[in-house]
Amino acid sequence: MAIFISATDEHSGSDGQGLFLFAGYVGPEKDWSEFFLPAWQERVLDGPPKIPYLHMTEIRSRRFRERYGLSHLAADDRLNAAVSVIGTMGSFDPIAVEIDAGHFKRAFAGVKVVHPDAKQFEAKPYEPDYLCFLSYAHTVLDYIHENYPHAEKLDFVVEQKGVISRYIGVFHSGLADALKQIGRPELSQIVGALSVVDKERIPCQAADMLCWHAARFEHAEEVKPQDIPDAERYLKLRRRKGLWFDFNAKLVSDMASALLPNEKSV
């Protein structure tokens, strides 16, 4: 069976009001397991010195580097190695959905989601994570169907994000039926399993690299001199085939108006 894997991470910024990204890489399962994972382990994690995982926020932390005996230059070498390993995977495509989180939260203010197994009155705000996951799932399934018609299943690997991951699991469980209802049974047939994993899982480390760099440079009007090495890495990560979907303000407002007809448009 031709199985593809989509590994994703998300970025929401420090205040949760700016650019929100749900992004990662999709490629054949065999390429992940037989080529990418061992190459990442050997060239990025094993060192010396060995590190347990590569996560951008932490490798930028002096405390993390000192704990594992990494100098600043050695950490940069690991990042360059990571970009190089990703670059060798011609079968991996970057897929992303971006949204203005602040605009989304204003448009859907007051909307709540309830987990089927939640206690009475336990409702959570409707976060951009949920809409972006559903948009990402539709986008990546359509992309795989159009570009890799031999694909039989697409499994989703998502990094753990607390309570939000519980609700994404619920959305995923209804994804196949939802696709049938909107007239896309051909996409419904290739919906695979969902795995919610921690940051030690290598595929999500690659997605974290993409999200971290995209959050800083996708819409940057200028790059500070000290950030040029990171910007150059991002060009290598971004400059390949794939799909970048902008869930722009008009789409968000139109959706809010359709779903919440009694609410004022934002």
Question: Can you tell me about this structure?
Answer:
It is a single chain. By secondary structure, the chain is of the alpha/beta class. The protein has one domain (3-259). It contains twelve helices and eight strands. It has helices at residues 29-45, 56-59, 62-68, 72-88, 101-107, 128-147, 163-173, 175-181, 185-188, 202-217, 228-238, 249-259; strands at residues 3-11, 19-28, 93-100, 112-113, 124-125, 153-159, 191-197, 243-247. It has a six-stranded mixed beta sheet with strand order 7-6-1-2-3-8. Helix 1 packs antiparallel against helix 4 (72-88), helix 6 (128-147) crosses helix 7 and helix 10 (202-217) crosses helix 11. 33% of the residues are buried.
How do the strands line up in the largest sheet?
Answer: 7-6-1-2-3-8
The total of helices stands at 12
The succession of helices and strands, N to C, reads EEHHHHEHEEHEHHHEHHEH
**Biggest β-sheet, characterized?**
6 strands, mixed
Task: Tell me, briefly, the overall form.
Answer: globular
Residues in helix, %: 40-55%
Tell me the β content. Answer: 15-25%
Distance between the termini: 46 Å
How big is the Rg?
Answer: 19 Å
What's the count of strands? 8
What is the total number of structural domains? 1
Classification by helices and strands? alpha/beta
> Unreliable stretches, pLDDT < 50, 5 or more residues?
none
Mean pLDDT across the residues is 89
Q: Could you list some keywords that capture this structure?
A:
about 270 residues; alpha/beta; two-stranded antiparallel sheet; 12 helices
What's the helix and strand layout?
Blueprint: E1 3-11, E2 19-28, H1 29-45, H2 56-59, H3 62-68, H4 72-88, E3 93-100, H5 101-107, E4 112-113, E5 124-125, H6 128-147, E6 153-159, H7 163-173, H8 175-181, H9 185-188, E7 191-197, H10 202-217, H11 228-238, E8 243-247, H12 249-259
Helix pairs in contact: 1-4, 6-7, 10-11
